[in-house]
Write a structure and sequence with these properties.
The chain is mainly α and about 400 residues long. It is built from 16 helices and three strands. A three-stranded mixed β-sheet has the order 1-3-2.
Length: about 400
């Protein structure tokens, strides 16, 4: 009997690419240099103007074109994947370092790539988005004053918006209970054309728009009190589809303003409202006038209660219903109902705490990016509304 000798089978392994140490150092240092350069130059408006025009605008536009290929929110996919991977990576890092010799060296080797990746993302965010907060704003570019408005002017424009909202409230489609009915797909499709008319007046609003993306985690956005978001790293407009439908078009228009390079929140709110009311689309017109009315009435309430009450009493029943429905919806998101009072109280408390924490972080971020009003800047569009629409009243 003979024994056949066979050669050992070689295991196939992937080729290991070894980069020169200088290249590795350059890769690690580059995002730090990019970030440091941004912070060193962010107070120079001319440099930030250049970055907004020649870095942010073309890159975000290209990213928006690529992400428009997908019907779902690429932003949500990337953020979810990043969160899952981060948890996995940190967990594995702990596991592989805890029982090994030289664990601090191993820990450093594993944390360095993570820190570099985070720094790359942050440096991109700085140049693609934060640069716009430090550049010349929409109001400055288009000759708006910053001297404030009189109570008389505020009341006059509030009456204009109240009258228009009341008139249009009877023209939008409603069900048998008087609830506003919106076809989200049709509205999303129509939204890419709503800036056509306003762009004739403000030429810097003439860029291309891409259809908004419905958010899978809309329930979470509602719990946190947010209606939508623009994500510069994908160029996408993401919309909370659980919010009341009659205001959704105004939210879409606001996020589209960001997509067109209007960075400041107060300016994006104004631009979105102005685009809505000039769109020629009744659904968007109503949402624009109702959204603007909410800002204006809030401001008027604090300076002239008598005129505020008079205007409130003159609103149509449909406007009053929509306004109440909007209030009821957001109030309902502050409480979690489980059927068991004990658990309901705990989850409600956690939800409120988390929402406050998110608000605090976002408020701090806005203030760090030259938005001195922080979250309150969302309501600071009143001056722009009054200045712009008062001039319209005078011309008419």
């Amino acid at each position: 009997m003979t024994t056949k000798v066979t050669k050992p089978v070689k295991k196939r392994t992937l080729p290991v690419i070894k980069l020169p140490r200088g290249v590795i150092i350059a890769i690690c240092v580059l995002p730090a240099v990019m970030t440091g350069l941004f912070y060193a130059l962010r107070h120079m408006t001319s440099v930030m103007d250049w970055a907004a025009d020649y870095i942010s605008a073309p890159v975000c536009g290209f990213l928006a074109m690529l992400s428009s290929i997908y019907p779902f929110s690429l932003t949500e996919v990337l953020l979810s994947a990043a969160g899952i991977w981060l948890i996995y990576y940190i967990t594995k890092t702990v596991m592989v370092t805890v029982h090994r010799r030289g664990k601090w060296k191993i820990l450093g080797r594993r944390l360095l790539p993570l820190a570099v990746a985070i720094l790359y993302i942050w440096s991109l965010f700085c140049w693609l988005w934060s640069s716009g907060y430090h550049a010349s704003g929409f109001a400055e570019k288009n000759g708006f004053s910053s001297g404030g408005v009189s109570v008389e002017s505020l009341a006059a424009v509030t009456r204009l918006f109240a009258g228009k909202a009341s008139e249009l409230s009877t023209l939008v489609e409603r069900d048998e209970y008087g609830n506003h009915i919106e076809d989200r797909r049709e509205m999303f499709a129509a939204s890419t054309d709503i800036y056509r008319n306003i762009a004739l007046e403000f030429q810097d609003l003439g860029g291309r728009l891409y259809s908004p993306k419905p958010m899978l985690f809309s329930w979470f956005m509602s719990r946190m009190g947010y209606t939508g978001m623009f994500f510069a790293l994908t160029g996408e407009v993401n919309i909370n589809t659980r919010m009341p439908g009659f205001l959704m078009p105004a939210t879409v228009a606001h996020e589209h303003a960001h997509q067109l390079g209007v960075f400041a929140e107060d300016e994006a709110s104004f631009v979105g409202i102005a685009a809505c009311v000039t769109s020629g689309n009744i659904v968007f017109e109503y949402a624009g006038y109702l959204s603007g009315l909410m800002y204006l009435m809030s401001a008027l309430h604090g300076v002239d209660f008598d005129q505020w009450r008079e205007i409130s009493e003159g609103l149509s029943d449909e406007v009053k219903k929509d306004w109440q429905d909007n209030y009821d919806y957001w109030q309902s998101q502050k409480r979690v109902e489980t059927g068991v009072e004990f658990f309901s109280r705990i989850l409600t408390s956690l939800t409120v705490t988390l929402s406050d924490a998110v608000d605090t972080v976002y408020d701090g971020f806005l203030k760090s990016q030259n938005q001195i009003l922080g979250i309150r800047s969302y309501g600071a569009c009143v001056d722009l509304l009054v200045e712009h629409f008062e001039a319209e009243l005078l011309h008419n």
